[in-house]
Each structure stands twice: as structure tokens, then as C-alpha cells.
């Protein structure tokens, strides 16, 4: 057994399982406590990029509650309506749209865009998120949520792709087409790109870890050769580029678009 906090223990074999940690924390949580924020995002299967791993469970409790956070939990005091709470995997949890509004108060815009893209692809529509902003139009995160929501797109296929898209948005570059299918003059399939500016024949790819696998690497090279031969400019970036040399990424894409 491992000790999560002063009266909460968990078998070591399941200490890294989100559901097990949530269940253990709820045993000593106040009545009507609701799983929220990053933990709710985890239960909904949402990946949050650019964040350090934090095993603590996030709870939202009544605003008048005197309960405090512990080593294994973070306590938030924000009013909840019945429409903000549902059940997921047997646990009381904030709805996807309420989770989004809560995360808007904590995440940087790029990470929030990644979460928003995933929500639109899997759990709710843009009007649902807009309703959350109507309910809480002011306060921490409201301006950030308003800035991110119009940029969100359910076609995004990875969180870091969303982070790259926010970087380009902040730089004032024109919005790209997502998951753009490129065909030759005869209509034959040449490839599909993460981001594309068809008028300029510019494609941008974000290469995650899977692109290091040998068969994927070979396929990437062959596809890139086909695209270049057809007159497209192909730029490929990794997380090291997006996070470590963002300015150079923007400069390269801007230069390609201006050719």
C-alpha cells in the first residue's frame, strides 16, 4: 500500500490508475464533491499538452465548504448547477463543457485550444461551450476562452498540432486548412497534410514520436517526395521546434507563404 494523504491509501499496483486514485480520494471527500478540472479532463479522455504530470485529484466543492487541499487532492470552490454535473465511469464529474470553462482559468491559450479541439471532436458542439461563457461571462479565464473558441477546429488530430496552430494564429498568419487532401491533376491521391494553404501550395506537418518508427519514416519520405515533385512546399516540425524555437517556425512558414 502507498499513502496518498493522511487517511487515504491505495495498493501500489494501481497507484498510477486514474480511476483508482479518484475512487480513493472520493472516500474521504465531502458529500457532493465533484471531480473537476484536469482530473475531469482525464476521465473524459482529453489530453492536456504543455503541463507537468500531476497525480493529484481535482475536486470542486460547495463554496462555503471548509475542506482543504491535501497532498493527493486540489480543492476548488466554485458554484455548480445541476446542468454542470454528470456521471462518468461511476464518478460524479463536471460535464465536458463545464470542464472546459474551468480549465480556461488555468491553462495557457495553446493548451486550451488543444482541449477545445478534442472536445469539439468528441463530446460537444461550439454552442455548448458558448453557453458556458454566457453563464460565466466574466472572471478568470473568460477572455482566454473567448479568444480560443473561434480558432478551435474538431479536425485537429493531435494536441501538439493544436499548439502549433495557436502559435501561427498568434503570429497573425492566415488560418490553414486542416487535414487537407492533396491530389494530382488527374485526381490521384498524393497525401494528406496536417495544415495546408492550398493557394500557396504550402503544407505543414507536425511529426510526433510515431514518425520515428521505421515504416512511418519511410512512408513519410515517399509521400514528401510525391508532394514536392507536384510543386508543393512541405515543412515538417517536431515538438522540439514548436516549443524550443517557435520564432524560427513562424519565420519559415511566413517565408513559404510569401513566395
UniProtKB/TrEMBL annotation:
UniProt-listed InterPro entries: DUF559 (IPR007569), Restrct_endonuc-II-like (IPR011335)
UniProt superkingdom: Bacteria
Ranges annotated as spanning the membrane: none
Domain DUF559, first and last residues per copy: 194-257
Gene3D superfamilies xref list: VSR Endonuclease
Signal sequence range: none
Protein name in the entry: DUF559 domain-containing protein
Amino acid at each position: 500500500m502507498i499513502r496518498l494523504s493522511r487517511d487515504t491509501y491505495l495498493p501500489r499496483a494501481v497507484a498510477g490508475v486514474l480511476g483508482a486514485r479518484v475512487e480513493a480520494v472520493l472516500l474521504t471527500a465531502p458529500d457532493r464533491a465533484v471531480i473537476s478540472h484536469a482530473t475531469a479532463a482525464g476521465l473524459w479522455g482529453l489530453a492536456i499538452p504543455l503541463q507537468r504530470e500531476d497525480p493529484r485529484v481535482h475536486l470542486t466543492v460547495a463554496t462555503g465548504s471548509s475542506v482543504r487541499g491535501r497532498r493527493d487532492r486540489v480543492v476548488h470552490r466554485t458554484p455548480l448547477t445541476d446542468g454542470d454535473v454528470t456521471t462518468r465511469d461511476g464518478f460524479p464529474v463536471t460535464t465536458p463543457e463545464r470542464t472546459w470553462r474551468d480549465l480556461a482559468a488555468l491553462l495557457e491559450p495553446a493548451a486550451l485550444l488543444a482541449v477545445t479541439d478534442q472536445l469539439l471532436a468528441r463530446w460537444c458542439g461550439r454552442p455548448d461551450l458558448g453557453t458556458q461563457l454566457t453563464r460565466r461571462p466574466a472572471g478568470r479565464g473568460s477572455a482566454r476562452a473567448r479568444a480560443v473558441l473561434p480558432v478551435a477546429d474538431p479536425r485537429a488530430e493531435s494536441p501538439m498540432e493544436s499548439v502549433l496552430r495557436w502559435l501561427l494564429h498568434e503570429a497573425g498568419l492566415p488560418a490553414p486548412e486542416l487535414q487537407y487532401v492533396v491530389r494530382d491533376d488527374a485526381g490521384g491521391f498524393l497525401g494528406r497534410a496536417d495544415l495546408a494553404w492550398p493557394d500557396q501550395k504550402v503544407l505543414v506537418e507536425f511529426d510526433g514520436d510515431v514518425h520515428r518508427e521505421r515504416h512511418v519514416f519511410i512512408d513519410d519520405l515517399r509521400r514528401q517526395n510525391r508532394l514536392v515533385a507536384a510543386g508543393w512546399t512541405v515543412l515538417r516540425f517536431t515538438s522540439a521546434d514548436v516549443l524550443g524555437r517557435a520564432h524560427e517556425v513562424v519565420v519559415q512558414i511566413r517565408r513559404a507563404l510569401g513566395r
